[in-house]
SIR2-like domain-containing protein (Alteraurantiacibacter buctensis), 342 residues
Amino acid sequence: MIRSKTTLVIGPGAGLEIELPDKRELLAKMAAGFDFARLGSELQTRDMVLLARHFEKVARRIGTTDDKLREGGQAIRTSARVGHSVDAVLEQHSHDPSVMAAGKLALIYYILQAEARSPLMLEPRDPGDLPLRGSENWLFQLGRLITAGVPRNQADKAFDNVNIINFNYDRSVQHYLPWVVSMAFGMTLGEARQLVGAKLNITHPFGNVGRLPWEPGERPDVEWGNEDPWNLQNLIKEVQTGSERMRNRQYVTGVQSALAGSKKIVFLGFDFDPQTIDFLFDYTYSHDPDVIASVQGMNEPTMKAVLRLLRRRTGIEDESLVSVLDMRCFQFMRDYALFLES
């Protein structure tokens, strides 16, 4: 059980560990899928055909034309040659509704495709197992931390000290946790989903591809890994760029306040993109929380820059309270379990 107020900030590196694409890979996939000049030739791909079909299907419903969506796709394809992430390219074209619609549609298409192909399955392969096999993944470690030592009759308190800010577009956390809760407390899956839906405090600042069908709320829903949703035109509205979200000052203030109220702030696979950092921090802290970032493969100069950035934005002067570790997310969650539970 996590006993002190803890915020987990989840970034693209965490998704990569369960074979979900990061923002750079998403952009590359989009650029390839928008190569509509190859349609009808031997060089066309399944993604090109399906994206073109989706454009035809949703164009009128979202108040545009198929040709304009294709032009929007071509603009993304061109910008991808110098762009470093899908977020950055969409931000660069935020003035053009056709580019935004084409990009958001493709983003949803590729995230749902990635969910379907991920080792995190819709259901466990074997009864009594988890939908993502094994314990060497951060989702398992997170579920274990949340449920460890909690009596069944107090299961609703397991999530009290956990706040999750997820900058990824997938729903892996929401999909996986009910299976762990069901196994930990001997609940039915339906009971576990009801508990997670009511108690899990998670937000996606840039949106996601829709809520899961069992999640509470009125937002459009789509099942995990459903590659052909009937309500695609509604799902497009669920994705937001940074500037779109920043206009909602009440939402942004709520995220920043939750982070500022935490005793522990943990970054999992976070990329420390300047735009997301601006989203998280608006003022320095006076209570000196523990801040730890788990990143893998980041070079030493960048790690030092991240360390300085975190100290400056939080205002923490005690160097021992801020750490940047070259570790996989699952290794951090496993090896620092005692720290996270305390």
User: Anything to note?
Assistant: The two ends are 8 Å apart (CA to CA).
